[in-house]
Amino acid sequence: MAASQSTSTNTTNITTNATQAHVPPEQLERVRRTLLRLLEVPGPSSFEAAAARAWRDEAATFAEQADIDVHGSAFAGIHLRGAPCVLLTGHLDEIGLMLTHVDNEGYCYFSTIGGWDPQVLVGQRVSILGRHGPVAGVIGRQATHLLESNERDRAVKIKDLWIDIGATSREQALAYVRPGDPVVLAAPPLELRDGRLAGRGLDNRTGAVVVLEALRLLAEHPGSLRAAVWAAANAQEEITGGGARAITYRLEPQVAVVVDVTHATDYPGADRRRLGEHALGSGPAIGRGSAAGPRVFQLLVEAAEAEGIPYTIEPTPGRTGTDAENVFAIRSGVATGLVSVPLRYMHSPNEVVQLSDMVHAARLLAAFCRRLSPDTDLRPV
To answer: What does DSSP assign to residue 344?
Structure first.
């Protein structure tokens, strides 16, 4: 999710009992394995190619068609002669850093790819994606003992930080890295208790896995499907939104569901009055308003309730901060929905999701697609 997401006020949320919703163990394990595989591959915005290949290769095991476009978005489809045409999309890119300068002592300076809180970067280990392979480094800052008192009290800025790769000169550093090299934090996934997982890049490998799993569920029972369904893991949501616009223009869907993450509100200090109630384990949040149109919202809610899938409602009175804005106005317009998975600690090295929420989100998308037919009226009238 892009850092500029607006938040809602005075929210009222509807949910079924998440503890009573059945999660098939084999599906939970499949989602877990797929997510862990995808998290192993770095993919900051504009540098998603390796992650796109991994997603495409998995989709190719069951889809009728799977490919990658010129922007680095991966896409796959099934039942391609059906109607209407549906697009399920979750962005593949993660926030990262980019080298901007190497000084005479070999220290590397950087800017951000996407929205970071610089406070979380201090002291982090990183992996620079150099042209000859990954290069390890650490983010340095002047030690707190050496800061003036007024410096200790102010928030750190990106210009106060650098990456130390152990080089002793500019020439030595440039043998391994160069300006423009992307950087990711060296924060491998960490499995927590009760089916929860932490790591970087869960915004939005989570959504990319959900749409892949939904497509797989539909491919397992094609006789129940009348629509043509494409799933996409699109590029550059965190910086330009161009990946979603291009893939939507290419595939020409009549209806789309964008899958992203939203702020969980079950941790200390979370303002539920401003953000609503979206706990880990409460199921996907269904967006209502703005680019998340009324007819698709209604169909998603009907599908969730018919299937006993837990969900919450997320009012979106302004911009959603997701690729829904980049999908709904393409060509003559696309009836667009928004489904989000609750996530703690967004845009940090250790975001946290609950795997069962991903399973419920995938089941919701599959149920939604099965309810569509050539006669489905997508107009909000």
So the answer is: B
What is the distance of C-alpha 267 from the center of its chain? 20
pLDDT digits (tens, 9 = 90+) for 274-333: 878 899 999 999 999 999 999 999 999 999 999 999 999 999 999 999 999 999 999 999
Token representation of residue 206: 């989570």
Surface-to-core class of residue 196, CB atoms within 10 Å of its CB (0-12 exposed, 13-18 middle, 19+ buried): middle
Provide the whole-model pTM. 0.93
Which residue intervals of the chain are DSSP H helices?
A: 25-39, 49-59, 149-153, 170-174, 202-220, 242-251, 272-275, 294-307, 324-327, 355-370
Q: Note the pLDDT tens digit of each residue in 115-134.
A: 999 999 999 999 999 999 99
CA-to-CA distance for 167 and 173, rounded, in angstroms?
A: 5
Annotate 192-227 with DSSP letters as a single string. Answer: -STTEEEETTHHHHHHHHHHHHHHHHHHH-GGG--S
Q: How far apart are the first and last CA of the chain?
A: 30
What is d(CA 298, CA 379) in angstroms, rounded to the nearest whole number?
A: 11
Secondary structure in 3-state letters for 289-340 = ECCECHHHHHHHHHHHHHHCCCCEEEECCCCCCCCHHHHCCCCCCCEEEEEE
Indicate the residue type of 132.
H
Q: Name the token pair of 343.
A: 């996530």
Helices (H) and strands (E) in the chain, counts: 10, 17
Domains of the chain, with CATH numbers?
18-94+201-370 (3.40.630.10), 97-185 (2.40.30.40)
Rounded Cα–Cα distance for residues 328 and 259 (Å): 13
Cα–Cα dist 208/227, whole Å: 20
